[in-house]
Amino acid sequence: MNTNQLIALSLGGVIGTGIFMSPGYFIKSAGAIGTVIAYLIGAVLVCLVMQCLSELSVHQPTTGAFHDYANQYINPGVGFVVAWLYWLTWTIALGSNLLTMGVLMQRWFPQEPTWLWCLFFGLIMFILNIGNLSWFSKSESITSWVKTFALLFFIVIGFLMVTRIIPGHHIQTAANFGELTKNGWFPHGIGPILATILTANFAYSGAEMIGVAAGETKNPEKAIPKASRRTLLLLITLFIGAILIMGALLAPSDNALATSPFVAILGQAGIPGAADIMNAILIITLFSASNAGVFAASRMIWSLADKGEISPKFGKLSRHGLPVYGLILTMAGGALSLLSSIYAAQTLYLALNALSAFAVVAVWIVIAWAQLNFRKQYQKEHDIKDLKYRAPLYPLTPIVVIVACLASIIGIGFDSNQRIALIIGVPFSLFLYGYYQIFQAKSKGQYHHEFSRLGQTTEDDFI
């Protein structure tokens, strides 16, 4: 992959329904300015995370990414835990997104069953990920840039409406962004902003996919830092811009904020078929995010097999050098997640979603922790100037990430709506760690020997 393809992969994972739907809820509770502050804090945090990941990925570009780094610089048990958490994050999202795409398609094809569309989109993802890597890269580039330009178009149209260059139908909000502070900067106090910060952090999850793709990247020492910077700049511009437009054109009491803010604003601009346009954009958004997630999750399975932590058979690669059984397991996990969302929505599926939210914070902590330990080890034997890329302000950068993420975890415990993420996430992580220590640590060497005996392809074949 080159820089542009890395950016597309990361944008594909990050830009999801979170930016198209969630900010409206936050604006109603925390106000537009409070929501912007929350997203800016989340942006600072993810910037620091990506600095840590860039240093690790440039020095050691591997397909296993933070699974490899945790194994080497923290503890193999921690690597085992974070790999499975990350895999679960994307398989759970896959099931949810497939179901949502099926429901959205019924707007145009009400007679067709939802499961048929789930199967259709799932099959396309499987084909794109099992074929040549260029198939996946091209598909992800197209879908990622479509939704990126859709957001840019929305921001430009919205800005012209705010400044009254384009007359908006039925607009009752103040002109020139006056609506943002009409009821005060923080109309409901600081409390809702703090709660929004916890969720805003998750809006940037997926940016770390750049690290997962490092082992399949051309010239990683230049491509990875460049892709990280450009991705974050785009995300911050799009996210903050969209929130400001929503807050300026929709009053906090407007129900459209909690339902379909994009449709409402495009409708006010007099754009015909606004609802159909946004329906199509949402389908593309969900497909792109799921496609990127399948890519990342299948690489985690390969990495687990490569380390001898699961059966070496999962390390088998296709003739194109792609993880066949890792992909099959990921698609099967997505199918099970989809079934749980239909038949066990208030039990198993609720627990899986909570686990997914917890996993994002866990991954970021592990990235910073691994970089902190890596730099300490590197400095003992090498001149720090020999590193091709260095995260700035060491050790402050990884320490801030760890403290901020731990604070988010503690904050989740005080939020009744998000507390289940801790109730499920912490015990499950401890279970995985205990399982590794009891069953995997002793047999790891045996698995690794079996991996080699079977002649399975290793990291070099990805590169």
TrEMBL record:
Q: How does it sit in the membrane?
A: Multi-pass membrane protein
Keyword Nucleotidyltransferase found? no
Q: Where are the transmembrane segments?
A: 7-26, 32-53, 73-94, 114-136, 148-166, 186-204, 232-251, 280-302, 322-344, 350-372, 393-414, 420-439
Major location (coarse)? membrane
User: Where is the protein situated, by its record's location annotation?
Assistant: Membrane
Keyword terms? Amino-acid transport, Membrane, Transmembrane, Transmembrane helix, Transport
Coiled-coil spans in chain: none
Which named protein is this?
Answer: Amino acid permease (LysP)
Protein species of origin: Fructobacillus cardui
